[in-house]
Amino acid sequence: MNKRRSFLRYAGLMSAGVFMTPALISCGTNNEANEDTATTGATADTGTATANTDTAIGIQLYSLREQIGSEGIEVVIPKVAEAGYKKVETYGYSQENGFFGMEPSAFNDLLRSHNLTSPSGHYSMDPYLSGGNEEMLQSFIDAAKAIGQTYIVIPHIGDSLRQSADDYRKLAQRINEAAQKVNEEGLQLAYHNHAFEFDQFGDTTGYQILLEETDPELVKMELDLYWVYRAEKDPVAMMNENPNRFVMWHVKDMDRNDRTLNTEIGSGSIDYQSLFNQSASNVEHIYVEQENFAENMDPYQSIRQSHDYVTNTLLS
Question: With helix as H, strand as E and coil as C, how does 155-185 read?
């Protein structure tokens, strides 16, 4: 089975109902630093769009934050669909502003009208992780359910919460508590990395602490591959050492001349072909993300180019 068929079969099983709710899976175990904060089978009850596994690649909408700000989400979403995407990952939800200024039900309608689904979303949890704001967590659960998401993703942890190994251990405990609540509601918690988690604290790193001290059944990982390479770590080794933990990827390439910049997938310095050959069949959702664009590059042309390269080359 080639990479594309294997990945699509796996993703299709997850979205078609073979992927049971996280509560059942758990077997009884009850730099988006600026963010303010599964695909499931369609039913009349949830209003979630039917999965289309012919085009399985998604996009993290943070890539188009400037366009969302200037053009509006109602303009951006059709262009995302035109670029070939069938999934979006959200960011920035709040009770006050909803999803990009839209109530969850209205945003879900917008997605459905363009044959898009949203398997996961980034929800900023610093207030919760620092020890309070249970209401915030519940609002995220309610919002995720309203648009058919399966994964609630922690996108970033503020500097003040992660100054030591003990800080990471406290965070791991709090993340477990959040994951338990999320799991009880039929959803799954995940954690998205940057590079700072790989800073050393003696003989360990913050990321290693999170992997070891969070419940592997309740807390999954969204591996941002650019940041892993930026930290000079081996993502394939990480996935091999922690099977069934890395359910989502962020795929963005590294500029050949300036490693702090992104570029279109396939145009940069990261050997994605080798990584996809080894590991793509084990991931549920792959999201293109680009945090910055070259000055002369149309962002919509960029996201289409990345989509087509991942679909037609990496997953072929």
Answer: CCCCHHHCCCHHHHHHHHHHHHHHHHHHHHC
Q: What is the pTM of this model?
A: 0.85
CA distance 36 to 33: 8
**4 neighbors 315 (Cβ within 8 angstroms):** yes
The rounded distance, in Å, linking the Cα atoms of 151 and 131 is 22
d(CA 42, CA 48): 5
Q: Residue 225 is which amino acid?
A: L
All domains of the chain in start order, with CATH? 58-314 (3.20.20.150)
- What pLDDT is stored for residue 6 in this prediction? 54
Note the Cα 35 to chain centre separation in Å.
13
pLDDT at 131: 87
Looking at every residue in the chain, the average pLDDT score rounds to 87
> Among 257, 226, 214, 310, which residue's Cα sits nearest to residue 3?
310
